[in-house]
Design a protein that fits this description.
- By secondary structure, the chain is α+β, with helices and mostly antiparallel strands.
- The chain contains 11 helices and 17 strands.
- The protein folds into 3 domains: 3-112, Translation, Eukaryotic Peptide Chain Release Factor Subunit 1, Chain A (2-Layer Sandwich); 126-258, Nucleotidyltransferase, domain 5 (2-Layer Sandwich); 272-368, 60s Ribosomal Protein L30, Chain: A (2-Layer Sandwich).
- It has helices at 3-11, 31-51, 56-70, 114-122, 167-198, 210-219, 222-225, 240-271, 280-288, 334-344, 356-360; strands spanning 19-25, 80-86, 91-97, 104-108, 126-131, 135-142, 145-146, 150-153, 203-207, 228-232, 276-278, 292-298, 304-308, 314-315, 329-333, 348-352, 364-368.
- Strands 5, 6, 7, 8, 9 and 10 form a 6-stranded mixed sheet that branches. It has a 4-stranded antiparallel sheet with strand order 3-2-1-4, sandwiched between helices.
- Strand 13 and strand 14 (314-315) form a beta hairpin.
- Helix 1 crosses helix 10 and helix 2 (31-51) packs antiparallel against helix 3.
- The longest helix is centred in the middle third of the chain and has 32 residues, at 167-198.
- The structure holds zinc ion.
- The site of zinc ion (ZN) has 8 residues, from loops.
- Zinc ion is lined by residues 308, 310-311, 313, 322, 324-325, 327.
């Protein structure tokens, strides 16, 4: 099952006991990161045990999972891992992803899904393509990390038999090589195009010497060229993880740029009264109607509101009867509740660290399934 469908199920989970949600940054790029995560977990586990709010078996599972992550016996290439445990609901699940999380430890009556939901929408399928004069490597990436690599190798004849020939033979040989190279680049370009179309790779990062990368670029069609977000250095014998790590910065940057422009488009759409609404009130109304296709919110958006015990409608304010059905309400964190409702109805969520125009609109904005 893909991450988005699983998230929708988790958002609907009715737990009868406390749920532990843990997010860890497992990008072990410096020596201290491992130690930071170890101390973070130790502190949070102790706090949870002292408070007695979580199931001891669940805490033990989190502790063991954390240990195998830190020792890298599991998912050594993941940059972030989310863990969910609730014995009462039969839930013990880990999600390794290729994007780092902020270390987070939450015990609540339901899974805390906001960071994972944001990653699911923000790390689209991508492709890293290494190329040199006679070979290519295609490494697909989804939200969980690199998939199986495809290696393409061209047979270039006569490559090592050019010694002592006449000038004419030499130039013929050169032309021969050139022709084959063109065929090689054209064949790799065709493979990249096929994979990119078939796997819906939204972004492509090229790797290799600049002149090789340039030659490949000349051979791909425009629709594929538009998906190329940049190029990184690379050599034929490097592990895929090294190429992917170099590509990650470019992909992250491309995600941020895409988010920025998607927010701009949604703001314009909301201003026209089209397929988007901005601000908390209109977003609440849209979420209550199940009309949200994509929710944008600032990372620091926090708002306490209430949910109706009867009809479930979310609304502002701290107490009082439901504005729709007059039954009692209970206080809820609206930021989390809105995200859960949107992913439960099959929508997606993006959190942004900052965005001036979004901040001016209350830090929240929704793209709708149909016009408002
Ligand atoms: Zn109600």
């Amino acid at each position: 099952m893909d991450l988005r469908s699983r998230l929708a199920q988790l958002a609907k989970l009715k737990a009868t006991g406390p749920v532990i949600s843990v997010y860890l940054n497992t990008r072990w790029t410096d020596e201290h990161q491992r130690e930071r995560v170890r101390i973070f977990l130790k502190t949070e586990l102790k706090r949870a045990r002292d408070a007695g709010r979580a199931d001891p078996d669940d805490l033990a599972w989190i502790e063991a999972s954390g240990r195998s992550l830190i020792e890298q016996t599991e998912w050594p290439d993941a940059s972030g891992v989310a863990l969910f445990a609730c014995r009462a609901a039969g839930l013990r699940e880990a999600f390794p992803v290729r994007v780092a999380f902020e270390d987070t430890f939450v015990v609540n009556d339901r899974p805390y899904l906001v960071p994972l939901a944001s990653v699911a929408a923000d790390a689209p399928p991508s492709l890293v393509v290494f190329i040199d004069g006679t070979s290519a490597r295609l490494i697909p990436l989804d939200v969980t990390g690199p998939g199986d690599e495809l290696v393409l190798e061209a047979q270039v004849e006569g490559r090592h038999s050019s010694g002592g020939w006449a000038a004419l033979a030499q130039s013929r040989y050169q032309r021969h090589i050139e022709t084959h190279r063109e065929q090689h680049f054209a064949a790799v370009a065709a493979a990249v195009t096929g994979w990119s179309d078939h796997r819906d790779a939204e972004r492509i990062v090229l790797a290799g010497e600049p002149r090789m990368v340039a030659a490949l670029r000349e051979h791909v069609p425009d629709r594929v060229a538009r998906r190329v977000v940049g190029a990184v250095a690379g050599t034929r014998y490097e592990p895929a993880s090294a190429l992917v790590e170099r590509a990650a910065a470019l992909l992250g940057q491309a995600d941020r740029v895409a988010d920025e422009s998607a927010v701009e488009r949604a703001i314009t759409e909301a201003a026209k009264g089209g397929h988007a609404v901005d601000g908390l009130d209109r977003t609440l109304d849209a979420v209550n109607r199940g009309a949200v296709r994509h929710l944008f919110l600032l990372r620091d958006f926090r708002e306490v509101g209430r949910a109706c015990e009867g009809c479930g409608a979310l609304q502002r304010g701290l107490g009082g009867a439901c504005a729709y059905c007059r039954r009692p309400t209970r206080p809820v964190p609206l930021d989390e509740e809105l995200v859960d409702r949107v992913i439960a109805s099959g929508g997606t969520v993006t959190r942004l660290a900052r965005h001036a125009a979004l901040a001016q609109r209350g830090g929240i904005l929704a793209v709708l399934r149909y016009a408002a």
